[in-house]
Design brief:
Distance between the termini of chain A: 36 Å
Strand content of chain A: 15-25%
Number of helices of chain B: 11
Shape of chain A: globular
CATH superfamily of the largest domain in chain B: FAD/NAD(P)-binding domain
CATH topology of the largest domain in chain B: FAD/NAD(P)-binding domain
Number of domains of chain A: 2
CATH class of the largest domain in chain B: Alpha Beta
Radius of gyration of chain A: 19 Å
Structural class of chain A: alpha+beta
Helix content of chain A: 25-40%
CATH architecture of the largest domain in chain B: 3-Layer(bba) Sandwich
Oligomer: heterodimer
Distance between the termini of chain B: 43 Å
Chain lengths: ~250, ~375
């Protein structure tokens, strides 16, 4: 399910949830890294030895919650944006959630936004407590959310989610309305919609829009996402300069 | 699903859609196009999308000129509600060898005689057209400003939508599993969704053409070969024409969208139906591109993919009827230029099927030429 939809199920989430007692004590890292991939910046970033050394670089990170101070260093270096800081000691009814955020524009501190869950569905109203701009452009947005949503809110929207003008494919600027129109016209696979509209053809290669488009097709046709035709994934997984491949140059 | 049709076209790529449209326009009823995936999902949707009239044989010049003239007005002619994005930025074809250089001069003469406005250029003149090229790598070039780039998805859609309005039925996600014949003629097509009885079958199955031929008991002398392409991030417009070299083995074009699309041929590529991507292509392509057009080394590659060329021995298509099997027609073996010839393919195949005199004589491109040993060689192919 996770592989197809990108959304972890309840068991996946249980596995990475810090104990309630620890969350209430103060800030703690929640590592939502569900796939074995060769990646370990979280371990190298941690100054408190809370993230244990990887035996195999493909291992998923293991964290010692007693050593974790919730400092957030791991959050800013995780290329998968899979690490969040949750602090349930914030107030009686509210918790803080720190979210790695690479979209622009950044929200205003003090403004209200819509908290989104892991499926991108709106779940509550949230207030932007703090916006930290980072050099590596993985900025941190701290949200105040109702305490019972601390393990639920993982992103936010500054607009109404269902707005037809919501951008679905950021690279090519394709809106929800355009995607819906194509589905209504009869296109029923992500690959067809990609070819007609260019959604998913930009530098990120559909990382975000692929699943959003699948959701829209599923909603329209009543199909389950897991029964649908998967879109094609093409190499390279990350943009790379021609000159680097040709030789005589190195990555920055 | 059991159906009957006047004509069944196998393959929902540009050729199949163009043939369907042209037949319907001539008044044929009950045409069914069968496509195993979605329209343009095969070679059409994977092609480099270049359109040119600069060829080395008179026939190819005529076929491509007819096609370009169609594309120029295709949005109106097909009544398309979007845009097929025909961008005539030209083709600059560069010579890498003396032999090629001499041939190009002859090609230009031939092209001009046929009304194709190409010109021969020195390396210095060529550099004025594409300033970021290394002109020391070339010996000369030819340029035709009417060549260009066309969006394969939209063009296929435009044909298909126009055909639908004329009553053509498209069965997508439907796979042909067999072709039934009786007493030397076609009687029907079996698919995974049911049977279609029909007296006429058109094989426009691209890379799968040989397999379709086998289903009808006809050995078609074609083979599928993987060709790969990569595309970069979009950047500001900096290269108007396609840059193409046969001996230098490259084609590279900036699309109207801003991204650069590039490909090259490779004789060691597999000749089966594989369309996976390879690391070797990425490396060879990057080297060729950076050597010939050095400033492009700073562009980011965002995607690579592969598709099938359906090759014939003389790199020319096979058009027309098959002597051994009545009602079985071929529009196959385009050897990498099926997309740009689609308007000619559709018109000429429709004329052939209806027994009309063809607008351009293509009788020499029949399947019989291989047995007669009358191949029609074209040197201008990547």
């Amino acid at each position: 399910m996770l592989i197809k939809t990108g959304v972890p199920d309840i068991e996946d989430i249980m596995e990475i949830t810090p104990p309630k007692r620890r969350r209430e004590k103060g800030p703690v890292a929640v590592i939502e890294c569900f796939q074995r991939i060769p990646c370990n910046p979280c371990y190298t970033a941690c100054r408190f030895g809370a993230i244990k050394e990887f035996e195999d670089i493909n291992d998923r990170p293991k964290i010692d919650y007693d050593k974790c101070t919730g400092c957030g260093l791991c959050l800013t270096v995780c290329p998968g944006l899979a690490i969040f800081i949750v602090d349930e000691s914030y107030s009686e009814k509210e918790a803080l959630v720190k979210i790695p955020y690479e979209f622009l524009p950044l929200p205003e501190e003090g403004s209200f936004v819509i908290g989104l869950n892991r499926e991108g569905k709106p779940v509550c109203r949230a207030q932007v407590k703090k916006v930290q701009k980072m050099k590596n452009k993985t900025n941190i947005v701290t949200l105040v959310v109702p305490k019972e949503r601390s393990m639920d809110v993982r992103s936010f929207s500054m607009k109404d989610y269902d707005d037809e003008n919501t951008i679905i494919c950021r690279c090519e600027g394709i809106t929800l309305g355009e995607v819906r129109k194509l589905i209504q016209e009869g296109y029923r696979t992500v690959d067809e919609i990609k070819r007609i509209s260019r959604a998913g053809m930009g530098p990120c290669q559909g990382r975000t829009c692929r699943q959003l488009i699948m959701q829209e097709i599923a909603k329209f046709t009543g199909q389950k996402m897991e029964d649908m035709l998967m879109p094609t994934f093409r190499p390279p997984t990350k943009p790379i300069k021609l000159g680097i491949i040709a030789g005589g140059e190195s990555d920055e | 699903m059991n159906k009957a049709a006047e004509v069944v076209i196998i393959g929902g790529g540009i050729s199949g859609c163009s043939i369907a449209y042209n037949l319907a326009k001539k008044g044929v009823k009950d045409i069914i196009v069968v496509e195993k995936s979605f329209l343009a999902s095969g070679s059409t949707g994977r092609c480099g999308a270049g359109i040119r009239m600069q060829w080395g044989t008179e026939q190819n010049c005529r076929l491509s000129k007819l096609s370009v003239e169609f594309f120029e007005n295709a949005n109106e002619e097909l009544g398309y509600d979007r845009d097929i994005e025909f961008n005539q930025g030209g083709y600059l074809i560069v010579a890498g060898t003396e032999e090629e250089n001499e041939q190009f001069k002859k090609n230009v003469e031939l092209q001009n005689k046929l009304g194709i406005p190409s010109v021969y250029l020195t390396p210095k003149e060529a550099k004025e057209i594409i300033p970021h090229m290394d002109e020391t790598k070339i010996l000369g070039a030819t340029f035709c400003e009417k060549d260009g780039h066309l969006n394969p998805f939209h063009t296929t859609e435009a044909y298909a939508k126009a055909a639908k309005r004329l009553g053509v039925e498209f069965l997508t996600f439907t796979e042909v599993t067999g072709i039934d014949t009786k007493c030397g003629r076609v009687i029907g097509v079996r698919t995974n969704k049911g049977y279609i009885s029909t007296p006429i079958v058109v094989n426009a199955a691209g890379g799968y053409a040989k397999r379709i031929g086998e289903m009808a008991g006809i050995d078609i002398p074609v083979y599928a070969q993987r060709h790969q392409i990569l595309v970069t991030e979009p950047v500001e417009p900096m290269q108007k024409p396609m840059y193409m070299g046969f001996s230098l083995n490259i084609y590279i074009q900036q699309t109207p969208h801003g991204s650069f699309i590039m490909g090259r041929g490779d004789d060691s590529e597999p000749t089966d139906l594989r369309i996976t991507s390879s690391w070797q292509f990425l490396e060879e392509m990057a080297k060729t591109c950076c050597e010939l057009l050095p400033p492009l080394r700073n562009l980011n590659i965002v995607r690579q993919w592969a598709g099938l060329y359906t090759m014939t021995e003389d790199a020319q298509p096979i058009y027309g009827a098959v002597e051994e099997l009545e009602g079985f027609y071929l529009a196959v073996g385009f050897s990498g230029h099926g997309f740009m010839l689609a308007p000619a393919t559709g018109l000429l195949m429709a004329e052939t099927i209806l027994g009309e005199e063809t607008t351009i004589d293509i009788s020499n491109l029949d399947i019989g030429r291989f047995k007669r040993n009358e191949l029609v060689f074209e040197s201008s192919v990547v």
